[in-house]
């Protein structure tokens, strides 16, 4: 990669952070518009100015199964100061009723108080302050992203949900992101975007974290596409046998002039045996239950830890202890990226969430290597 000859890894990763932070900024007004449309400020106001998520869901009439997703929306809005949040054990409402055992308590700030629809102000002399904010939020509210998320949160809890349904699908006539990528590659070049990210990131991985591949004799890149990552690894470690596992329609397009082997299959069914399994930006596409299934298949494919078996994951670890708490742009980019993943039913996980799914899949230990900007390498050991 020529850029690595001109810039350091950290300079390149910092530049990528700057671009991602700017590009993901669209999710901030979308989150605010969604909170207004779901009447979150009014709901907290009716509940005395402080409420837990279960209380907000019940009072606002939002499907209880959306609790986890609402927490992700509120994380963005508390980070930016629209609401405040404290742990229940340290917070009491004005009437001294405790909120213990129900999770964090969200409170109105001066900013969110301006968003409350106060009927006492609806006169020609003093219209609510939120009206001008509503006008500025119109582009975000009317975008496919905004409409899809609102429809997602307002789904009837008794209505059966088709498999694969997501805010993205609600925005694009029922298409999943994978279906749209396949049918509309010109205007939605998803595969090219993934390949470009691999071309950018993998040389940095090998330069800064190449030791994770030392001592391996075989590696299978799960959902590795056309083999960009595996080819880069194989070139750096000629004695390492690299295999790519992906769906038959993907493998059918794979290049033939490479030292990487391609196997058609399904990671939810089985994974070819190897010393190590490599998962680059795969698990953040799937919910916890699906990730556990994938990781269990990964565990079956590798030998014991004593024999060198491990899983190598490249993904985000949101708000990890290893990230600098003072780097606001770093943390905000991670939580905004999480909203992007929520749009397709994916999730960016923090360390405890990674620990939960890996231990449920039967792994005994893990290691986080935070050397890739907003992303990390996670090693799982059987």
Question: Can you offer a commentary on this structure?
Answer:
The protein is an alpha/beta fold. It has 2 domains: 2-87 and 103-114, Orthogonal Bundle (Arc Repressor Mutant, subunit A); 190-381, Rossmann fold, CATH 3.40.50.150. The chain contains 18 helices and 10 strands. The strands form 2 sheets. The chain has a 7-stranded mixed sheet with strand order 6-5-4-7-8-10-9, sandwiched between helices. β5, α15 and β6 form a beta-alpha-beta unit. α2 (9-23) packs across α17 (328-342), α6 (67-79) runs antiparallel to α17 (328-342) and α13 (190-209) runs parallel beside α14. The longest helix has 20 residues, at 190-209. It is elongated. It starts with a helix and ends with a strand. Mean pLDDT is 88; it is low at 90-100.
């Amino acid at each position: 990669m020529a850029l690595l000859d001109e810039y350091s890894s950290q300079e390149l990763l910092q530049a990528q952070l700057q671009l991602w932070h700017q590009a993901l900024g669209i999710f901030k007004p979308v989150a605010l518009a969604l909170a207004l449309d779901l009447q979150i400020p009014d709901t907290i106001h009716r509940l005395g100015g402080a409420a837990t998520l279960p209380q907000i869901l019940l009072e606002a009439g939002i499907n209880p199964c959306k609790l986890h997703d609402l927490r992700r929306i509120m994380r963005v809005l508390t980070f930016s100061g629209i609401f405040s949040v404290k742990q229940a054990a340290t917070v009491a409402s004005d009437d001294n009723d405790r909120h213990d055992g129900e999770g964090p308590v969200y409170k109105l700030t001066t900013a969110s108080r301006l968003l409350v629809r106060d009927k006492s102000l609806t006169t020609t002399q003093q219209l609510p302050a939120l009206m001008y904010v509503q006008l500025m939020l119109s582009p975000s509210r009317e975008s496919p992203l905004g409409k899809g998320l609102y429809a997602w949160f307002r789904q009837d809890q008794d209505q059966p949900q088709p498999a694969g349904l997501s805010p993205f699908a609600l925005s694009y006539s029922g298409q999943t992101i994978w279906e749209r990528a396949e049918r509309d590659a010109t205007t939605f070049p998803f595969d090219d975007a993934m390949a470009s990210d691999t071309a950018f990131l993998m040389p940095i991985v090998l330069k800064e974290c190449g030791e994770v591949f030392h001592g391996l004799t075989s590696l299978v890149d799960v959902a590795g596409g056309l083999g960009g990552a595996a080819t880069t690894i194989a070139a750096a470690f000629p004695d390492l046998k690299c295999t790519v596992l992906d769906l038959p329609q993907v493998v059918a397009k794979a290049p033939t002039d490479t030292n990487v082997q391609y196997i058609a299959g399904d990671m939810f069914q089985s994974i070819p045996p190897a010393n190590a399994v490599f998962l680059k930006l795969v698990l953040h596409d799937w919910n916890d239950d699906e990730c556990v299934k994938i990781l269990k298949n990964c565990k079956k494919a590798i030998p014991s830890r004593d024999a060198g078996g491990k899983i190598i994951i490249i993904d985000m670890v949101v708000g990890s202890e290893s990230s600098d708490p003072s780097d606001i742009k770093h943390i905000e980019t991670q939580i905004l990226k999480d909203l992007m993943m929520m749009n397709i039913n994916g999730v960016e996980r923090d360390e405890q969430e990674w620990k939960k799914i890996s231990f449920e899949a039967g792994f005994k230990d893990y290691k986080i290597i935070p050397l890739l900007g907003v992303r990390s390498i996670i090693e799982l050991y059987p």
